[in-house]
Amino acid sequence: MIPWWSRLLTLGCVALVLAVTSLGVDAQPRESASSAGSTQASLSAVQAYQQGARLADVRSATRDDVEAVRLFRWAADRGNADAQLYLGWMYENGRGIPKDHVEAARYYRLAARQGLSVAQTNLGFMYETGRGVANNDGEAVRLYRLAVKQGDARAQSHLGWMYANGRGVPRDDVRAVRLYRLAANRGHADAQNRLAFMHAEGRGVPRDDVEAIRLYRLAADQGNAPAQFNLALRHLSGQGVIQDDAQAARLLRLAADQGLAKAQRNLGVLHLEGRGVSKDDVEAVRLFGLAADQGLAAAHDNLGWMYENGRGVAKNHLEALRLFRLAASQGDASGQYKVGYFFEQGLGGLNPDLSAAKDWYQLAARQGHDDAQAALKRLGATW
User: Fold this and answer.
1) How many C-beta neighbours within 10 Å does residue 243 have?
2) Over the stretch 201-232, which tens digit does the pLDDT of each residue have?
3) Tell me, what's the pLDDT at 37?
4) The pLDDT of residue 196
5) Which of 111, 130, 150, 154 shows the shortest CA–CA distance to 24?
6) Nearest-CA neighbor of 252 among 276, 274, 272, 273?
7) pLDDT attached to residue 78
8) 3 CB contacts (<8 Å, ≥6 apart)?
9) Rounded to an integer, what distance in angstroms lies between the CA atom of residue 46 and that of residue 288?
10) Are 30 and 54 in contact (CB under 8 A)?
11) Can you say whether the dihedral through the CA atoms of 244, 247, 249, 338 is positive or negative?
12) DSSP of 222-278, one letter per residue?
């Protein structure tokens, strides 16, 4: 029986990281811009915005987020669109003020109505994800289209994703590719990663691993964590590139350090096996824990296995069962199998219960889990 920890994520899982969207550096409002429709009466608001932007600059030796928020609010209340945009961003990211997505959306809306494409894109993403507003894919698409008309690369990438996934619009891979390419050609890393996936899967374009690898590298070189993860999977499997565990581990660490849960989990597997990195159970536990804290089902399962077997941590069947249940509750087949096994064996404080064990085994078996199917055959049950 192949142990779970040798079953690395397959290339098919690349799709799961395509929707990762950062509202980081490329989403920050412009440091200097003139507000649409500014009048002589609003010149002082422009000056307040500009001073706030200098104070909010992370590179500034005089950075003062609290004072920047005060200045942005003063200017925003006087109709300065750039200040409204930046104040929304400060609320969204908890800079100089407690994080508040409702207020972020309110200020983005004010700036979006004045035609700022960054605000339209940011507000569109909030509608797409249901943060600060009720989820509304149709409204997200409308806002992305407004920003796309102004050539906003982030909006092109987001709208492409909506078409690729049939969110708010009928699924249209060809249109998705066209939008991704527009943004990718302008150097937008998320779009490069997404376009690479379309080439890898032959969606909207002929399948082309060479082009997929080229695009993944372009995005990875810009620090895009999903692209680093996707390229790492290629190096683990040797598909389209030289098989290289050390290079895969390097890329996974780059993505893991940015908080990408799937990268943290896979790097943990490499440490457990000693593939491309030192064999280190304690580091594997740490990485599985980081990914589990983000709710990744596979990481719950992996960490549960570590507690079950006393690898990198003291053996603890109660904690193992808790983690397996978390994985199982998300539909993870391995977690479901392990809960069934604990019921069958009476582990983790459970009384032996073959009926409950079969129920859990059947959930896993229906997803094709080999060990669960074998357990059911051994118990004379079907799935």
Assistant:
1) 12
2) 999 999 999 999 999 999 999 999 999 999 99
3) 42
4) 98
5) 154
6) 276
7) 95
8) none
9) 48
10) no
11) negative
12) TT-HHHHHHHHHHHHHTSSS---HHHHHHHHHHHHHTT-HHHHHHHHHHHHHTSSS-
For CA atoms 131, 136, 137, 138, the dihedral sign is negative
Global pTM value: 0.85
Please, what's the largest Cα pairwise distance for the chain?
A: 84
Average pLDDT over residues 166-181: 98
Encoded amino acid at 207, one letter: R
Closest CA to 216 of 179, 251, 267, 245: 251
Question: pLDDT-based confidence at 22, cuts 50/70/90?
Answer: very low
Check residue 9 and give its pLDDT.
39
First-to-final CA distance of the chain: 20
CA distance 234 to 118: 34
Residues whose CB falls within 8 Å of the CB of residue 163, separated by 6 or more in sequence, listed in order: 169, 171, 172, 173, 175, 176, 179
Q: Which residue has the tokens 């190096």?
A: 235
Query: Could you tell me if 248 and 236 are in contact, meaning their C-beta atoms sit under 8 angstroms apart?
Result: yes
